[in-house]
Write a structure and sequence with these properties.
This protein is mostly beta strands. The protein has one helix and 32 strands. The chain folds into two domains: 54 residues, no CATH class; 360 residues, Pectate Lyase C-like.
Length: 449
């Protein structure tokens, strides 16, 4: 909202009285319908200028004064920990611009009839690195927030995808994709996103964190997605890697990838609750063309997946389908009411049989530990299976293999592999599971269910 210095406007935000406080004037637009209208400034031809709009407006809501962000951020700026910040509608960090967020900052999402989200456009960057003692928190401006209250964080990069050269993000969140596998969208560290994942329509849902065509130059670690209405973390192609991540109480998939994601993951926690959930990991290549290149082909190690019954009996640990490739090691799966791990569709089964989809050194103590299903929906038996003794996977259905767990904390060295064999990005964690009892990396900065 653009207003004159001498003006104070009043509006209603979700039934509450909101005062829009004066903001400084900068060169804006001569079109009075534009949200950066400025009747005092125009080009010689009388047309609008949009290159220097105010980057926030002060609003007072429920007795709290916020610095409200809307539209495009077109210059480098910092969100300071000592201020109250509010997102209204889609907020975009534009190309060539860096948004910095200080440790300990809380960013609220407005309840004003818009769909708030924070998107980093291609060529833009975010530098949001909190600490365990001072995490960065994104949460709704509401006394009793509910899942799906806002749209979450979206990073759009130039890394390859397999649906074309570029694609458009769900919910109008930006263009992504390209040919730069090492593209850098910035850093997210010790960041918690709460009550995100707004559902806009069928196959049009936002998530806690969406990584769209993000390159390997992007840094992601110590992130939590808490009680979203859709996925906690979703990768749409790209090559970015993620270490130390917690998906808590998200009502669709905890982790999801598609369209050619080929990064790495280590130390991931899936913690479902009875209010909603689907798959712990849903892994796809391309639903329209299961053989599309580049293939989804990540390497994933040290994951603890704790399922829950949400009333439909359908929650399951891993669903590997639509042609995904990948390597899994040191995975622990338990308490999902439907099954532990399903490999589905002919191309995915071929990948398993050919060794480009592997699952080793893991524990599935869960009803129906493994299921292999072809594209016709029938059970399949191949020459190479995850159940083969050479993969060193242990299975049970009665909880007898996971007695070392307290919640999601606990690991075992029994049967574990060494993920550093895959490369130096991985830490030497020769145990099954994500969180060791003597070294709880989730303590202090995450929120418990």
């Amino acid at each position: 909202m653009k207003i004159k210095n001498s003006t104070i406007k009043i509006m209603v935000l979700a039934g509450a009285l909101v005062t829009v406080l004066p903001a400084c004037k900068k060169k804006g637009c001569t079109d009075p319908t534009a949200n950066n209208y400025n009747s005092e400034a125009k080009k010689d031809d009388g047309t609008c200028t949009f290159d220097a709009i105010d980057w926030y407006t002060e609003v007072s809501y429920a007795g709290v004064t916020y610095k409200q962000l809307t539209g495009n951020i077109t210059e480098d700026h910092t969100l300071t920990a000592g201020d109250n910040w509010l997102l209204s509608g889609g907020v975009f960090v534009t190309s060539g611009v860096t948004l910095t967020i200080e440790p300990g900052t809380t960013v609220n999402a407005a309840d004003d009839g818009t769909t708030p989200f924070l998107a980093v456009a291609q060529g833009g960057q975010i530098n949001a690195c909190g600490t365990a003692a001072a995490p960065i928190i994104f949460t709704p401006a509401a006394d009793a927030p509910a899942p799906g209250a806002w749209g979450g964080i979206i990073l759009n990069g130039y890394a390859p995808i397999n649906t074309g050269t570029t694609a458009e993000g769900e919910g109008g969140t930006g263009t992504y994709g390209g040919a730069d596998a090492t593209d850098n969208s910035g850093s997210l560290c010790y960041v918690r996103v709460e009550y995100a994942g707004k559902i806009l329509g069928t196959d049009n849902e936002l998530n806690g964190f969406s990584f769209n065509g993000c390159g390997s130059g992007t840094t992601l670690h110590h992130l939590q997605a808490y009680k979203g209405s859709d996925d906690g973390f979703e990768f749409f192609g790209g090559t970015v890697s993620l270490k130390y991540a917690v998906s808590s109480g998200n009502q669709d998939d905890s982790f999801d990838w598609t369209h050619g994601w080929s990064g790495n993951g280590q130390f991931w926690v899936v913690n479902q609750d009875a209010l909603g959930g689907d798959r712990g990991i849903e892994a796809d290549n391309n639903g329209d063309n299961n053989e599309a290149n580049p293939y989804s082909d990540p390497k994933i190690a040290n994951v603890t997946m704790i399922g829950a019954e949400d009333g439909d009996g359908a929650n399951q640990g891993l669903k590997l389908r639509e042609g995904t490739k990948g390597n899994f090691m040191n995975i622990l799966v338990t308490n999902f009411p439907k099954r532990g791990c399903q490999v589905e569709h002919d191309v995915t089964l071929t990948n398993m049989n050919g060794g480009s989809l592997t699952f080793k050194n893991s524990i599935i103590d869960n009803v129906s530990p493994f299921k292999f299903t072809n594209s016709a929906g029938n059970d399949s038996t191949l020459a190479v299976m995850f159940t083969d003794a050479a993969n060193n996977n242990a299975t049970a259905t009665d909880g007898s293999l996971v007695g070392f767990l307290t919640g999601y904390v606990g690991t075992t060295a029994t049967g574990a592999g060494d993920p550093t064999a895959w490369g130096t990005w991985f830490d030497a964690a020769t145990y099954v599971g994500a969180v060791s009892a003597g070294s709880d990396w989730t303590a202090g900065w995450t929120r418990a269910l």
